Amino acid sequence: MELIEQSRIFEGRQLRLRHASSSCHCDMTLAIFLPPQAVDQSVPVVWWLSGLTCNDQNFTTKAGAQRIAAELGLAIIAPDTSPRGAEVPDAEDGAWDFGQGAGFYVNATQAPYDRHYQMADYIQQELPSAIQQALPSLLKDFKPLDFSRQSISGHSMGGHGALTLAIKHPEQYRSASAFAPICAPSDCPWGQKALGAYIGQDRNAWRKYDAVALLEDRGYSKPLLVDQGMADSFLDVQLMPDRLEKICQEKRIPLTLNRRAGYDHSYYFISTFIESHLRFHAEALAQV
Questions:
Q1: Catalytic-role residue among 21, 50, 82, 156
Q2: Which of 282, 252, 286, 258 is nearest to 69 (CA)?
Q3: Chain centre distance of CA 233
Q4: Using CA atoms in the order 214, 192, 184, 230, what is the torsion angle rounded to 10 degrees?
Q5: How many domains are there within the chain?
Q6: Are 278 and 220 spatial neighbours (Cβ–Cβ below 8 Å)?
Q7: What are 64-105's pLDDT values in tens digits?
Q8: I want to staple 48 with a disulfide (CB 3.0 to 4.6 A). Which of 78, 79, 189, 211 is the partner?
Q9: Which of 153, 155, 232, 281 is catalytic?
Q10: Catalytic residue list contains 265
């Protein structure tokens, strides 16, 4: 793992790193914020998964999360949203909602995407191990991160990824939240396009990458926090938070769904409410 750049911020450290991924078979970049407490003790981790067209830098530069993360003693890891490179297959028509920048946090099973688009395994398995091994030698003045305490959050496509990973791995993530998540990708244009190409046309196989379907099939016992802007142009066709709310009510899953009047799909929305999400995760991560 190579340290590309680092900056001091709120007495902590903002890092950008690159490494060769064995899951995605290409070089991947990621961003990590280390709070000042990490100099003296091992701190817990909040994962942030970004949305369509984003990379590892959107959240880092636009969300304004470092100040509150420094106060709470939280590390934040923001991976890229897909494999990238000349050898990585992309959307043939150059579309922005599929291919590079749009990995959908799935493990693809269909050629030609199956070799590189293994984002679920990359986030959940490979990257925690790679960071654990690499950071102590790269930054000797910081303690190793505490991966026994992890939470996960994300936006839009990344909100979908955060919810599905948390529901499938409740033993790994202590809490989950999302901003404007794609709640039912099996039933929206973005999701149908991605799942059809990455996973194939068997809609039953899509269910393990669909938060509403996963809750129907598995349930979930931990609290969920979701914020949705009501001026979001993608609300009704792509996001469908009402579907998430309905299944949580049926399954008695503790969901807090904040409908934010006047807010859209942008990072202005995320930066306004990121503090409440980080405090939500800090409370879960502080439990013994």
A1: 156
A2: 282
A3: 21
A4: 160
A5: 1
A6: no
A7: 999 999 999 999 999 999 999 999 999 988 899 999 999 999
A8: 78
A9: 232
A10: yes
Cis peptide before 89 (omega within 30 of 0): no
With 70 as the cut, is the pLDDT of residue 288 above it?
no
Of the listed 116, 160, 265, 281, which one is catalytic? 265
* 265's tokens: 């799909």
- Pairwise CA distance, residues 171 & 100, whole Å: 30
Structure tokens at 147: 């991966």
Angle (CA) 29 35 41, round 5°: 110
Tens of pLDDT along 110-168? 999 999 999 999 999 999 999 999 998 999 899 999 999 999 999 999 999 999 999 99
97 tagged catalytic: no
The per-residue pLDDT for range 210-263, each reduced to its tens digit, is: 999 999 999 999 999 999 999 999 999 999 999 999 999 999 999 999 999 999
Phi, psi angle pair for 176, to nearest 5°: -140, 140
Cβ neighbours, 10 Å, residue 39: 15
pLDDT of the residue at 81: 98
Residue 84, domain CATH: 3.40.50.1820
Would you say 102 and 96 are in contact if contact means Cβ atoms under 8 Å apart? yes
Query: Which residue range forms the structural domain that includes residue 175?
Result: 2-286
29 and 127 in contact (C-beta within 8 Å)? no
Backbone angles phi, psi at 255, to 5 degrees: -110, 130
pTM of the model: 0.97
Q: 3-state class of 176 per DSSP?
A: strand
Q: Is 116 a catalytic residue?
A: no
Q: Which structure tokens are listed for 194? A: 């991605």
